[in-house]
Amino acid sequence: MLGIAGGIVLGLLVGxxxxxxxxxxxLMMERDWRQQCRELLDDAPSADQPTNxxxxxxxxxxxxxxxxCETQIKAWQNIPVISWLLLRGHCAxxxxxxxxxxxxxxxxxxxxxxxxxxxxGTGLAGLTALLFIWCLIALTVIDLDHQLLPDSLTYxxxxxxxxxxxxxxxxxxxxxxxxxxxxGAAAGYLSLWSIYWLFKxxxxxEGMGYGDFKLLAALGAWLGYQQLxxxxxxxxxxxxxxxxxxxxxxxxxxxxxxxxxxxxxxxGLITLLWGEQLVTTxxxxxxL
Length: 288
Known about the structure:
- By secondary structure, the chain is mainly α.
- The chain has helices at residues 2-40, 82-86, 101-120, 124-146, 151-171, 178-203, 210-223, 228-249, 261-286.
- The longest helix is centred in the first third of the chain and has 39 residues, at 2-40.
C-alpha cells in the first residue's frame, strides 16, 4: 500500500509537469516552425525588431504565470489539485477562472500511476509502466487540443519500448522480447501507413496523420506484434462508436476530423493491463 500511495503522489507531481508539457510543447513546436520558415524565406528580423521567438521559451523557462494578468505563480499555488481547490479555481491575483482540466489531469495521472505500481510493483517494471502511461496522457491531451502527436513524445515512447524490450529478460520487465518488439514497431507503423494510402487513393483525402503511425509503432514496440490486433480493434471500435455518437447526439459535422491518438492511447493502456486476458476470453468465447 505504501508503494501505491507513493505512486499516486509521484503521479500527482508528474501530472502538474504534464500540464506544462501539454500547454508549452505545441507552442515550442510552432515557434520552431516559424523560425524555420523565416530562415527558408531569408526573412530574419533585424536586431532592432525582435520577435517573441527571441525570448527563451521551453518546458522550464519562463516560470508559470497567469495567462490573464501575467502574475507569476508561487510555489504554494502550484501544489497539484490542492492549490486549485484552495484558490477555488481562480487566479490569486486577478481572480480569473482557472480551467478545471488542470487538476483533472493531475488527478488522472496520480490514479493511473498508482494503478501501474499496484499492477507492476515499485521496481524497474513499475517505473517503465509509469513512463508509458505518462507519455500516453500527454499525447492524448495534445492530440485532443491540436490534432498533433509530437515526434519528441512518440519517439521517446518508441525507442524506450525497444530499449526496455532489449533489457527486459534481465530485469523481468512486463514487455515482449526484442524480436516481438521490433516486429511490433514495424507492423504498427506499416499497418496504419497502408490504410492511410489506400484511403487517400480511394477518396483523395487524408484519413489520419503520420503521428498516428508513429504512436502505433511505439505501442507495437511496448506490446509486441502479437497484441497489435487487440490495440487496433479496441481503438477502431471505440473511435467509431464515439464518432457516431458525436454526430448523432451532438450534431457534429461528419467532415470535421476526430483525433485518433486518444483512442490508440486508451487501447494501448487497456492492452498493457489486460491484453492477454482479453485474447484468452475471446478465444474461449469463440470456442477456439
